[in-house]
Amino acid sequence: MVGTIVHQLTDGASLEEIEKAGLGAYYTDHGVDVYPQSAAGMAFSANALACKGDVIANLQEDLAAEQKARATYEKLIDLCCDDPDVVGPLQFLRAREVVHFQRFGEALRGVQDKLAEKKFYMNNMNCMNNNMNNNCNCN
Questions:
Q1: Would you say 35 and 43 are in contact if contact means Cβ atoms under 8 Å apart?
Q2: Nearest residue to 14 via CA among 3, 23, 5
Q3: What are the residue ranges spanned by the domains of the chain?
């Protein structure tokens, strides 16, 4: 959505306006198309995804990602003009990150609660022996 906003704001801009805004190098590489990259110009890659194969570690990464996105939207709102067509979608995106953070937090608490449950194992040797002889009535 942010890329779409940037595209809409630069649509129809002259080359002089693009250069004056400091977007000359970006325009040279990408025109007015959306190209996902950081504010420092680092292109998005899968290196930004931190999957560990552990549910708790992955949920912690998800929580951190939501907070980083929220902080980014807040900074974009601070940098932005008072145009409600720009600020409104950014405020929506920021609120969405807050809700995602809450849901990931709930998921993490659920996983931690499940892992903390006492394991209970039942072993009825008499039933097992009878079952081997097809005589089990332990249903």
A1: yes
A2: 23
A3: 1-48, 52-139
For the chain, 139 residues long, give each residue's pLDDT as a single digit of tens: 777 887 888 888 888 998 998 888 888 888 777 788 877 878 887 776 778 889 999 999 999 999 999 999 999 899 887 889 899 999 999 999 999 999 999 999 999 999 998 877 766 666 555 555 565 555 5
Nearest to 60 by CA among 111, 113, 18, 24: 111
Which residues, in sequence order, are bridge partners of residue 43? Answer: 37
Question: 3-class DSSP state for residue 60?
Answer: helix
- Please list, in sequence order, all residues whose beta carbon lies within 8 angstroms of the beta carbon of residue 76, skipping any fewer than 6 positions away: 2, 90
| Phi, psi of 100, deg, nearest 5 | -60, -40
Q: Are 56 and 108 in contact (CB under 8 A)?
A: yes
Residue pair 90/77 in contact (Cβ under 8 Å)? The answer is: yes
72 and 48 Cβ atoms separated by less than 8 Å = no
43 φ, ψ (degrees, to nearest 5): -65, 145
Hey, what are 122's tokens? Answer: 């039942």
